[in-house]
């Protein structure tokens, strides 16, 4: 899809009136991270921003950098607060037991776990393609697998402890199965230090 083209001469567009270009909006969106913040910074309303950014890579997640911990920034509820307070505790792995322990209903706990899992999926997808990283992982069989050797893969996030299960096929035709912690998966996308230290 092509980027938004300005209309024919006549009444000026919002961008023309403000002296902005689509490239300015893309840069502002990448800098600010959300439509709301970009709208406030540029003076262009959110719907107009969507219209202009629709055909660019930033609206499809390819050009936008994920915000660290943005997936955790959901609305704070009593259930969210309880889970934050008990994040270092060993919690049961069933909705019923979690509901009994926390004092919330099973529906509230199930909804929290689902929303957190979906937000984690979106965040992990926004990090980019795992196969493009110059690092390696250890699979469940103890093999060290360079990420460039992965032909195809799928991610599954555990809704209770947010561990990331990676399953797929290697270029050699072998099966891949690995389980890593959420922060370990994030670490696969962090650039190595370039200050000369190892």
Provide a concise account of the structure shown.
This protein has 198 residues and is an alpha+beta fold.
What key attributes describe this structure?
198 residues; alpha+beta; 3 domains; two-stranded antiparallel sheet; 38% helix; disordered C terminus
Structure description:
The chain is an alpha+beta fold and 198 residues long. The chain folds into 3 domains: 14-60; 70-127; 130-187, no CATH class. It contains 8 helices and 5 strands. The strands form 2 sheets. Strands 3-4-5 form a 3-stranded antiparallel β-sheet. A two-stranded antiparallel ribbon has the order 1-2. Strand 3 (150-157) and strand 4 (164-170) form a beta hairpin. The protein starts with 13 loop residues before the first helix and ends in an 11-residue tail after the last helix. The model is unreliable at 193-198 (pLDDT under 50).
Beta-strand fraction estimate: 5-15%
Unreliable spans? 193-198
The pLDDT mean sits at 81
Instruction: Name the shape in a single word.
Output: flat
Largest sheet: 3 strands, antiparallel
Straight-line N-to-C gap: 43 Å
Report strand order across the widest sheet: 3-4-5
Overall radius of gyration: 22 Å
**Assembly type of the shown chains?**
single chain
Structural class: alpha+beta
- Work out the helicity level: 25-40%
What's the SSE pattern? HHHHHHHEEEEEH
How many independent structural domains? Answer: 3
- Total strands: the figure is 5
Q: What is the number of helices?
A: 8
Task: Lay out the secondary structure.
Layout: H1 14-18, H2 22-32, H3 35-42, H4 46-53, H5 78-85, H6 95-102, H7 106-127, E1 136-138, E2 144-146, E3 150-157, E4 164-170, E5 175-180, H8 182-187
Antiparallel strand pairs: 1-2, 3-4, 4-5
Helix pairs in contact: 2-3, 6-7
